[in-house]
Amino acid sequence: MTKYTFTDKKDTRSGFGDGLLELGRKNSNVVGLCADLTGSLKMGDFQKEFPSRFFQMGIAEANMMGVAAGMTIGGMIPFTGTFANFSTGRVYDQIRQSIAYSGKNVKICASHAGLTLGEDGATHQILEDVGMMKMLPGMTVIVPCDYNQTKAATIALGDHIGPAYLRFGRPGWPVFIAPNRPFEIGKADKMIEGKDVTIFANGHMVWQAIEAEAILAEKGISVELINLHTIKPLDVDAIIKSVSKTGCAVTCEEHQMNGGLGDSVAQTLSRFHPAPVEMVAVNDSFGESGKPTDLLKKYGLAPENIVSAVERVISRK
Amino acid sequence: MADLATLKKLTSQIRRDIVRMVHACQSGHPGGSLGCTEFFVALYFEIMKHDKDFNMDGKGEDLFFLSNGHISPVWYSTLARAGYFDTKELATFRKLNTRLQGHPATHEHLPGIRVASGSLGQGLSVAIGAARTKKLNSDNRLVFVLMGDGEQQEGQVWEAAMYAAHNKIDNLIATIDYNGQQIDGPVDEVLSLLDLKAKWKAFGWEVIECNGNDLEEVTKALKHAKSLTGKGKPVMNLMRTEMGCGVDFMVGTHKWHGIAPNDEQLADALGQLEETVGDY
Question: Which end of chain B has the lower number of beta carbons within 10 A, N or C?
Answer without folding.
Answer: N
